[in-house]
């Protein structure tokens, strides 16, 4: 019994000595770790904001901030482990080997890494949602719809779905359809609409606007005004021209037809069914 008590006291003394030696280092390491976590959180936001303001796409800025987080955490881990007695030089060599291998792997695999076909501020349609890209993270894309809703689309769905990017080119083509009865002067209509397009500032000179007869229907001609505008005028450019065309037609006495759907019913008596 005395031997057991003596051994137990020896173990307690040994643990106490180890605690007395490592306790201050563990406390310092924990404080340093907390400081590093706060530094990573707020420094990452600040760096991301600077990169986006500098013109870097938001997704690449997110990747850069993630790399900064990893670097700071590795450095912090190196310092913390060094405080508690782990060989710092050995850990540094291991970290450098991991970083070099990771960097080489990224350079080799970069051409094969899928890239999102848009950036922040683009007007896109994907996964049934049409709107402006508000933000891009590693996990999802935030889309603000034209009626003010916010939709979060997972990036894996974006990469596996058809994406329409209306902001990929500087100019957009617009079409205005109108219907003219056969008894109207087609040449006058074409000259009048063509002059309106020519005088409107938002309509680009090249490609040149055109006014054509698109289709022939039983009661009217389906005419089309085709023109190009800058991307910023794509959504509203048609509205003002519609008003100008209608006002000019009324002033010149040109009548427009409206599409009609005619339904005919077969009134012939059906032959009685014999038993």
Tell me about this structure.
A 5-stranded antiparallel β-sheet has the order 4-3-2-1-5. The protein has a 3-stranded antiparallel β-sheet with strand order 6-8-7, covered by helices on one side. The chain folds into 3 domains: 2-112, Helix Hairpins; 123-165, SH3 type barrels, CATH 2.30.30; 171-252, Alpha-Beta Plaits (2-Layer Sandwich). The protein is built from 6 helices and 8 strands. It is of the alpha+beta class and 275 residues long. The longest helix is centred in the N-terminal third of the chain and has 52 residues, at 2-53. It has helices at 2-53, 58-83, 88-109, 155-159, 186-199, 237-252, and strands spanning 123-126, 129-136, 140-145, 150-154, 164-165, 171-180, 210-216, 221-230. 49% of the residues lie in helices and 19% in strands.
Summarize the structure.
By secondary structure, the protein is an alpha+beta fold.
What structural keywords apply?
275 residues; alpha+beta; Helix Hairpins; SH3 type barrels; Alpha-Beta Plaits; 3 domains; 5-stranded antiparallel beta sheet; 19% strand
